Amino acid sequence: xxxxxxxxxxxxxxxxxxxxxxxxxxxxxxxxxxxxxxxxxxxxxxxxxxxxxxxxxxxxxxxxxxxxxxxxxxxxxxxxxxxxxxxxxxxxxxxxxxxxxxxxxxxxxxx
Length: 111
What we know:
This protein is mainly alpha-helical. The protein has one domain. The chain contains six helices and no strands. Helix 4 runs antiparallel to helix 5 (79-94) and helix 4 packs across helix 6 (99-106).
């Protein structure tokens, strides 16, 4: 096995592990909670993720939007593995009343 092939396999394993870690943080409802683990997976601090959250937004809605942004922004090549997780999250977001105020602010967070 060449170094390049081995390096590629290690990178693929890392990408899959980060996806698995994010998915493991998803609640049964389809939402995510805002916490240090989610912020770290997004490459941000909890302060950075909270800074852009609209004042009237629900923290779980905001966390779920960020998780989806991360999946679509960084893990699109692995969509087959997480597409149903994302569908559940989108369904949960649509059922919430705080969505209109959250979506414009999500554009301010660079994934």
